[in-house]
Every structure is written in structure tokens, then in C-alpha cells.
Amino acid sequence: PDGEKAWPKKYPFCGGVFQSPIDFHKDILQYDSNLLPLEFIGYNVSPTEQFTLTNNGHSVKMYLSPTMSLRKLPFLYSASQLHLHWGSQNRSGGSEHTVSGKHFAAELHIVHYNSEKYPDIAAAMDKTDGLAVLAVLLEIGAFNPSYEKIFKHFRNVKYKDQMVKVPGFNVQELLPDRLDEYYRYEGSLTTPPCYPSVLWTVFRHPVTISQEQLLALETAMYCTERDDPEPLEMVDNFRNVQEFHERLVFISFQEGFLVSVVISCVLGVLTILAVIFWLLKKSCKKWGRDNRGVPYKPGQDKEEEEISKL
């Protein structure tokens, strides 16, 4: 009720270090050639299986199949749930992470736990190596049929604690096409208790949903139960960007960050060549030869001066 500034009073980690979300800006980004595309196991779930979608009072959450997992991380991580963060009709953006200060329309989080070391997400949640979360930035664009497989059920989870079954589908369709380009850093849960236990993978390229789909997300649900006399709309359920405290974000892509270095190098080489050419030309004139090494004819230097004046 009092907003996120009051969280640390009850949940001390929320006022601590390694908190999320953050802003990705060039001063904290470092390319890491060891960051490889993730491997998705069991993400294509049969329609005969069903996910459970629920309104938990602060987001819409869908429980995932335990057969879904991630590889190419320090451990094997098994899927637990996915949920969304969004803004409202009165705000221009509702994503949690930002890029150079820019908010996106919304953000999807797919939460996994370290199943090599812990039996379930409850046991893993407060451990420093416990969780791995995939984040997808959403922007307004073309209608997205994959997201509609979730969005069309919002009317059945309008109020807190309501739930509905969703037929299985390929959850990887919710991710961007370029899975090899992402930001990676160590952070926290973005809701209380804010444990600093998350290895974040935030995909560089956003996914589009339509304006109508975003509107459905922003207006469909309430934080309160069905019979509450003062219903509270579920809007602006994103946490503000946190201090980064001398951490680095590792990135799996180079383009856009080395361009300025390459341009500087090329300009530097051209400058050096120009200086060398000028010195050679000056040296040739000093010893009575032109820049091709051919001896000057009597009066040639004076003729060239006259020509240059013209």
C-alpha cells in the first residue's frame, strides 16, 4: 500500500545491494566472448498438457511444466513460472529493465531454479546461486499470436486468487528470434523479499505485441478479490531502476560498441599516412626531387608555386 520505498522496513534485502532491475548503459557493459546461446529443453509443451494461470494480487503468473529447463548456464535450471510487469494507460512504459534510460511497454520474466543443487524453488529462492530469470522486453508493434495464447485468458483471472487452465504451447515462441544477443548480470528478485539470488539474462531485442494486446494487459485485472468493496486496478506493477554499485553487465554481442573504436583506428591510420606523405614530399623537395623521386628541372619549384596560386 505504501509503495516500494517502504519495502525495506519489512524486507531488509530490498534495501541492500545487488538489486534489480537496472538500466543498461554503455559505461557498465563489457563484452564476454564466453557467453553462448542458451539451450532450451522441453519448452515445446503439448496442448494435451495444461498450465495454470493465476492472478496473485500483484501480477498475472503462469506455472510452467517441470520438464522445462535451461542449459549453457553454470548449473541446470528448471522452469517454475512466468509473469509480466506493465504500466498503465497514463504512463509511456511499464518494463522493469531499461536501456540507456528508455522504458519499454512491458516485460516478461520466465523464472527458473537451480535444480542441480536444490529440490524446489522454495529452497532455491534465497540462495546466491538459486535462480535464473529470462527477461523479454515488450514493445508496441504487430499483433503477437503467441502472447495471445496467454492474454486471451485474462478475463478468467480478473480478480486476486482466480485461476484458469491454459493449453500447452511452445513457450520459446514468447522469446525474440535472436537468442544469442543478451545482457547478463547478477541481481535480485524485483518484488519482496528481493533476495539477491538471480542470474539475469535480458534479451537485447524486444518482442512486439499490439496496442490492443497491451491495453488488455493494462486494463484486465485487479489486485483485489472479487467481492472487495474498493477494487484496485492492477497497473504500474514494475519496480523502479536500482543503484548498480560497481557491478558489470556482461554482453554477448559486440556491434554498436566497437564501431566507434574501429572508426577511431581508421582515422588514426589515415592521419599517420598523411603525415608520412607530407614528410616524404618535403624531403624530396629538399634534395631536389619531386614526390616520385624524379629530379626537379630548373625553375620547376617556382612554376608549381605559380600553379598552386591559380
Structural commentary:
The chain is of the alpha+beta class. The protein has helices at 7-10, 121-124, 145-151, 211-219, 259-286, 300-309, and strands at residues 23-24, 29-31, 39-41, 50-55, 60-63, 69-71, 77-86, 98-99, 106-114, 131-140, 163-167, 182-187, 198-203, 207-209, 249-251. The strands form two sheets. Strands 2, 3, 4, 5, 6, 7, 9, 10, 11, 12, 13, 14 and 15 form a 13-stranded mixed sheet that branches. A hairpin with a 4-residue loop joins strand 4 and strand 5 (60-63). The N and C termini lie far apart (81 Å).
Compute the separation of the termini in Å: 81 Å
- Tell me the structural class: alpha+beta
Task: Tell me, briefly, the overall form.
Answer: globular
Helical residue percent?
10-25%
Which descriptors would you attach to this protein?
single chain; 310 residues; alpha+beta; 13-stranded mixed β-sheet; two-stranded parallel ribbon; 20% helix; 24% strand; globular
